[in-house]
């Protein structure tokens, strides 16, 4: 018989179905619908979350690219991620090995360096061409290096050229010169009309600025002294093409510079030619009428004609002195003396016939000068050697007639229409030894010519400097009054001077009024001017 389940059994079966999910649940139709919807939603949730995650990732990547671009991080902006060291090394390796252009990175950079070198060479060539056009000759490498060194190191008015170009002296240098400039204005005020004296402050400032690093002697000067020498005149130099130069003494004890301004009033010119105006540096700026001359106050060794022509009482002792001094190594006289035979004490064994030896010496110098390269003098220029210094006090060396000699120079130029310019070149030589020189103190034997007061006759004095100043002014004046451009140059290298004088197309020695009629000989060369005349007779060159 069938047995009906008891109520207790039904309850137990229901509890078992709750505990055991595999047991079917008896639910209503509505509950079943809700269950199906919940189940479907559960299936869609992962897909929704995945879409949200992808969208968030895209937004983050976009944000990182934007930020990286704003911060200048090119690598992250391009790839969206930071390159590792390994990736960077690999990229550089591939770039260096064979880029798409067919040249390696090293080859590309080498080509760029070659282009830079070619550009630099082209600029240097252009600078050289400009220098050649301005100077009339092509500076060699050593000259350019030395010029650059002096340009950067030599102080002018207390500052270097670099400082000046950096703007240092626009106010400071003007203030430094303002005192002397003010004195010059005051000194000339008494001779000017009233309207000229009432100059505005702005006009004075413009004049001060125009001076730049022009370190000319002050225009102010006392009244003309009673013992004033000569009749120097205030000159107008006119337009000039003479290049700007700067002189600096290689030996401040022996070689000095003297600055003079032939455009200044007469009293100022007298004051400039004074031992108080001797210095160790000087700026030549012809456009501002500022010129310089070397003053070799102890020039007892390199007395060229004395040694070459065996003149005077001191040529033997000075020749021995030349052989002991390193500063004359490589000079013409040093090489000439070194090739002479010596005795056991390393003393020069002079020939018994002095005139024969003098002729041998001249031939040696002539051949050396012929082989030298030096700045050529253009054929439209008359080069004039002005024997200055102690020569104005030596009867057999001084210019016999200054006026006649200056007129002769201008006459030579006028007779040749191609000459447009006169270049006067002079150095003030004083043929006495330094009293503190160790060689002459130990060896002795140098005969010093004395004057009436017992002092060395060929020493530097104010009177001698003033005489030189008058002679220089007189020659410049004669050329300017004839309408010619006039340069004044000064070079403290006698070898270079000999080369330029000997090879110039047009050359005159100021101490030879009548010019050079014929080639001299060992008997007739009694001065440096005679030696130069004979060298020019042999080596003159025109183009």
Shape: elongated
- What is the averaged pLDDT score? 73
Number of strands: 9
The biggest beta sheet, please?
7 strands, mixed
Cα end-to-end separation: 156 Å
- Residue windows where pLDDT falls under 50 for at least 5 positions: 1-5, 7-27, 72-79, 154-160, 172-229, 393-397
C-alpha-based Rg, rounded: 46 Å
Helix content: 40-55%
Query: What is the H/E string?
Result: HHHHHHHHHHEEHEEEHHHHEHEHHEHEH
Structure annotation, total helices: 20
Task: Estimate the strand proportion.
Answer: 5-15%
Question: How would you classify the helix and strand content by structural class?
Answer: alpha/beta
Structure write-up:
The model is unreliable at 1-5, 7-27, 72-79, 154-160, 172-229 and 393-397 (pLDDT under 50). Strands 2, 3, 5, 6, 7, 8 and 9 form a 7-stranded mixed beta sheet that branches. The chain has a two-stranded antiparallel ribbon with strand order 1-4. It has 20 helices and 9 strands. With 543 residues, the protein is α/β, with parallel strands linked by helices. It is elongated, with a radius of gyration of 46 Å. It is 49% helix and 9% strand.
Topology at a glance:
Blueprint: H1 7-19, H2 29-70, H3 74-79, H4 85-97, H5 105-135, H6 141-153, H7 161-165, H8 172-189, H9 194-197, H10 201-211, E1 245-248, E2 255-260, H11 266-272, E3 278-279, E4 281-284, E5 291-296, H12 304-309, H13 315-324, H14 332-338, H15 354-371, E6 381-389, H16 402-414, E7 421-429, H17 438-443, H18 462-481, E8 485-489, H19 494-503, E9 506-509, H20 528-539
């Amino acid at each position: 018989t069938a047995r009906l389940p008891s109520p207790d059994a039904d309850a137990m079966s229901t509890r078992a179905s709750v505990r055991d999910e595999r047991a079917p649940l008896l639910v209503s139709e509505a509950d079943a619908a809700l269950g199906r919807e919940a189940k479907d939603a559960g299936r869609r949730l992962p897909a929704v979350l995945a879409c949200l995650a992808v969208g968030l990732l895209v937004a983050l990547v976009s944000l990182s690219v934007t930020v990286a671009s704003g911060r200048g991080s090119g690598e992250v902006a391009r790839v969206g991620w930071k390159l590792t060291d390994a990736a960077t090394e690999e990229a550089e390796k591939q770039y260096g090995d064979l880029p798409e252009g067919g040249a390696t990175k090293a080859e590309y950079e080498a080509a760029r360096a070659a282009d830079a070198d070619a550009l630099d060479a082209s600029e240097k060539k252009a600078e050289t061409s400009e220098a050649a056009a301005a100077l009339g000759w092509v500076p060699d490498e050593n000259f350019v290096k030395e010029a650059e060194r002096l340009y950067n190191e030599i102080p002018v008015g207390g500052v270097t050229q670099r400082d000046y170009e950096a703007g240092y002296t626009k106010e400071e240098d003007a203030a430094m010169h303002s005192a002397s400039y003010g004195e010059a204005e005051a000194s000339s005020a008494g001779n000017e009309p009233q309207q000229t004296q009432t100059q505005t402050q702005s006009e004075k400032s413009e004049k001060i600025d125009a001076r730049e690093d022009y370190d000319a002697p002050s225009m102010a000067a006392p009244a003309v002294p009673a013992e004033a020498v000569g009749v120097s005149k205030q000159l107008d130099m006119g337009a000039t093409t003479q290049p700007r130069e700067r002189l600096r003494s290689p030996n401040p004890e022996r070689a000095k510079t003297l600055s003079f301004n032939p455009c200044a009033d007469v009293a100022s010119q007298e004051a400039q030619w004074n031992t108080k105006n001797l210095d160790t540096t000087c700026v030549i700026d012809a456009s501002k009428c500022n010129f310089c001359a070397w003053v070799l106050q102890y020039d007892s060794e390199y007395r060229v004609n004395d040694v070459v022509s065996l003149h005077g009482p001191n040529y033997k002792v000075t020749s021995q002195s030349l052989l002991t001094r390193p500063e004359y190594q490589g000079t013409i006289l040093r090489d000439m003396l070194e090739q002479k035979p010596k005795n056991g004490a390393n003393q020069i064994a002079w020939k018994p016939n002095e005139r024969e030896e003098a002729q041998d010496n001249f031939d040696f110098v002539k051949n050396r000068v012929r082989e030298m390269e030096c700045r050529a003098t253009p054929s439209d220029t008359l080069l004039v050697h002005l024997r200055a210094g102690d020569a104005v006090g030596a009867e057999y060396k001084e210019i016999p007639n200054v006026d006649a000699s200056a007129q002769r120079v201008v006459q030579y130029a006028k007779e040749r229409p191609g000459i447009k310019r006169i270049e006067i070149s002079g150095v003030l030589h004083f043929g006495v030894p330094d009293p503190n020189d160790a060689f002459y103190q130990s060896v002795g034997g140098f005969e010093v010519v004395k004057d009436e007061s017992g002092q060395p006759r060929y020493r530097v004095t104010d009177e001698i400097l003033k005489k030189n100043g008058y002679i220089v002014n007189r020659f410049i004046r004669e050329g300017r009054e004839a309408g010619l451009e006039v340069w004044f140059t000064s070079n403290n290298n006698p070898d270079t001077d000999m080369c330029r004088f000997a090879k110039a197309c047009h050359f005159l020695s100021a101490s030879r009024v009548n010019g050079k009629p014929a080639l001299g000989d060992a008997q007739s060369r009694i001065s440096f001017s005679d030696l130069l005349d004979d060298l020019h007779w042999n080596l003159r060159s025109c183009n």
